[in-house]
Amino acid sequence: MEIVKKLNKALLHNKPDGRCLLNIEDFKNIAEAYTGTENCIAVLSDMQYDKSYIFSSKTSLELGLNFHDYPVTIDSIWEEEMLKKIHPDDRMKKYVHELRFFRFLESVNIENRSEFSVFSKIRMEDKKGIYQWIRHRMFYFFSPYNRKLRFALCLYDIEWDQSALSSRFLIINTVKGKVAFEDKMDYNNILSSREMEILKQIGEGLTSKEIADVLSISIHTVNRHRQNILEKLKVKNSVSAFNEVMDKFL
């Protein structure tokens, strides 16, 4: 998936550095405290060692996630069991927004980066296979030693107001109580809704046949849409088309 490749390149460190000055046990305690007080699911990702720790709660059971360990340790920064429950459209937007948040923080003095966090509403399947609106919050923690991103903390809980009409992706200044950035993710002035849908599937790494199966259309129709996308964006191939849209978003 192209967007995940971009995220891995931006987020992951190549070499562990023992002088990071951030103690992982302190951040595990923070994640566990959120889980205990808010009944949310907390995912702590360690960019330096490419690992994640999932702290579950009763909310996990409501979403059909039966974690047997506490915390669950994963040899990846991607919590696939949770990510696959996110609506495909929102999952792609979540990836894009995470990369945008990282680039946004790069422009902020390291002393002020802790003032910002992500707030979003996304759809996730519950234990009955029904999409529920989920409140997703994300915090990034940078090392004071090498100024690189060390930890990401993601919190998931079920939104009490299920009347939302669309997903939201905000960067919040929690000190000032203001929205620093709202990601509208709108490219429909150039591409049709079907073309955007196909482009998202391309970003997920699907072939034309797989896209046709997912969308219940013919391969001929998929290929026609792909050609239209290339012509509208004035690029030579589908990967370039996807990157063009991502660059506009970012």
From TrEMBL:
<keyword id="KW-0804">Transcription</keyword>
<protein>
    <submittedName>
        <fullName>Regulatory protein, luxR family</fullName>
    </submittedName>
</protein>
<keyword id="KW-0805">Transcription regulation</keyword>
<dbReference type="Pfam" id="PF00196">
    <property type="entry name" value="GerE"/>
</dbReference>
<dbReference type="GO" id="GO:0003677">
    <property type="term" value="F:DNA binding"/>
</dbReference>
<keyword id="KW-0238">DNA-binding</keyword>
<dbReference type="InterPro" id="IPR000792">
    <property type="entry name" value="Tscrpt_reg_LuxR_C"/>
</dbReference>
<dbReference type="InterPro" id="IPR036388">
    <property type="entry name" value="WH-like_DNA-bd_sf"/>
</dbReference>
<dbReference type="GO" id="GO:0006355">
    <property type="term" value="P:regulation of DNA-templated transcription"/>
</dbReference>
<dbReference type="InterPro" id="IPR016032">
    <property type="entry name" value="Sig_transdc_resp-reg_C-effctor"/>
</dbReference>
<feature type="domain" description="HTH luxR-type">
    <location>
        <begin position="184"/>
        <end position="249"/>
    </location>
</feature>
